[in-house]
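In this section we walk through a basic example: taking a raw amino acid sequence and producing a predicted 3D structure, encoded as discrete structure tokens. The instruction is simple. Fold the sequence below.
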Amino acid sequence: PPQVSFTLELEFSCSILLDRAEVMLQATSDSTEATPEDNVVKLSVPIRYEPDLFLSSNTNLHRYEVHPFGTFTHSSGPEFTTTVKVQNFGCYAIQNVTLHMALPALGHRQATILSVTHVLADNATCVLQPPPEGTQVVPVPPDDLLHTDR
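The resulting token sequence is shown next.
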């Protein structure tokens, strides 16, 4: 028997949020059919809205020299502030967003190169915690910082 295939592309409004899309398709013909009851199908599919998240960060210190081979002093280095912002540019509300940040805290010979002094959160709940038990914390080699993203 002959077949016809087609694709439906639906656009949804930002002002009316739906849980499901329901479509009824009906085929008609001028011919006499023995089984006209199979000419109708109803489709119902769940709708999931895609968020449009934008993550940005900004810091007031872009360069800091860490001395190699254990020549760190015991005093604190310069304080710097890093601001991280998560924005939803989509028109659909989102829930339960979690952002994990891994901070570079160990250098050559396990020397501490970063300590968090305080966390300020606006419209969020922030939890500062060490790596989970059993996590291998790998120090940053002295000559490898250019190739390390954490």
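Looking at the output, two observations stand out. DSSP finds no helices and four strands in the chain. The chain has a mean pLDDT of 79. In the next section we compare this with other chains.
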